[in-house]
Design brief:
With 329 residues, the chain is α+β, with helices and mostly antiparallel strands. The chain contains six helices and 14 strands.
Length: 329
């Protein structure tokens, strides 16, 4: 029995050495940067690094050391855009971006305590690691250089406008790809509203102008990312939960110019009480060329899962019961 015991002890030592070697190798993949920041370059293109004041278009992922994704810009249908600021402290996100040029990508480990104490970032719950991981991919840089503010702003606006036109022309293909991917065969109205009934209510009442519709909803991008919901369980699962918000059906007056997006106005008067449906809205029926800051970019098609919980008839003679005036009057 002695020999096998020695072999077991030796094997454990070998495994410990191997584990230590793997851990050391993993640590060595990151290099020491400024302050307490570590970095690992994935792509390194030729070109000048991003300077303070430059306009940048980039994708990024924010993760914990436990590999929990807190944010992924790709979920929001479009890359992020901003002007590079001066670092708030040595080794922050803008320090990291300043190491990159157009076309570069890299992952940075940034000290969480510094983010909280020096930048005022809320500390994520249940995070055990010391660092937050950011992976950046720089798609486009418009250098400020020696341009005056007006000329620089004009170049940025020209780029943003072109990106908007590109998004606008690509909308129909995006919606078709989404429908094909999800294997959806929607009913399409004359306005362009696409809807799929997921629970039919054959004998339910329909809302008339002036009525108030109570509805539960979940709003999503075509990527599947939830950006808003009235359902608490969905909010918690999707990472959009806010403790101060009441999670309950919302009440929307219809047909009286209440300011809701056009796709909702049409759907809430089309679908009877008790119906559950998925709406696929082109941007012209959602937030259009303006978008809805800060989350929804211009020309962004959206998906809504809705549940018509109740319809409250307008009281006879009330202002809500009167038809809305024609648009433009």
């Amino acid at each position: 029995m002695v020999a096998p015991l020695k072999q077991i002890i030796q094997m454990k030592k070998i495994l410990l050495i191997l584990c230590a070697a793997v851990a050391f190798s993993s640590c060595k993949q990151f290099k020491q940067g400024e302050g307490d920041m570590f970095y690992k370059i994935h792509e390194d293109k030729e070109g000048p690094t991003v300077k303070d004041g430059d306009f940048i278009v980039f994708k990024f992922i924010q993760k914990t050391e436990e590999d929990s994704v807190l944010y992924n810009s790709s979920d929001y249908d479009r890359p992020a855009m901003t002007v590079k600021q001066k670092p708030g402290f040595k080794g922050d996100m803008f320090t990291a971006i300043g190491m990159l040029s157009e076309g570069d990508s890299a992952t940075f480990k940034i000290n969480i305590d510094s983010l909280v104490n020096k930048l005022g970032m809320p500390k994520p719950e249940n995070v055990k690691g010391k660092y937050m991981l950011y992976t950046f991919k720089i798609d486009k840089v418009i250098p400020k250089g020696k341009l005056n503010d007006a000329d620089f702003q004009a170049k940025v606006e020209e780029f943003v406008k072109a990106e908007g036109e590109k998004a606008k022309s690509g909308e129909a293909a995006k919606i078709k790809n989404y429908l094909d991917k999800e294997d959806l065969k929607p009913t399409t109205t004359a306005s362009g509203l696409n809807y799929v009934i997921t629970k039919e209510a054959k004998n339910g009442q329909r809302a008339k102008p002036g009525d108030t519709v109570e509805v539960n909803y979940t709003g999503k991008f075509l990527t599947g990312k939830v950006f808003d919901t009235s359902l608490q369980d969905v909010a918690k699962k999707s990472g959009t939960y806010m403790a101060q918000r009441p999670y309950q059906p919302i009440k929307i007056p219809v047909g009286v110019g209440s300011g809701i997006i056009q796709g909702w106005e049409e759907a809430l008067m089309l679908l009877p009480k008790g119906t559950k449906a998925t709406l696929i809205l082109p941007s012209k029926l959602a937030y259009g060329e303006q978008g809805s800051a800060p989350t929804i970019q211009p020309y962004t098609p959206l998906v809504f899962d809705i549940d018509i919980v109740n319809i409250i008839p307008a009281k006879p003679g009330s202002a809500a019961a009167q038809p809305a005036p024609p648009a433009g009057n």
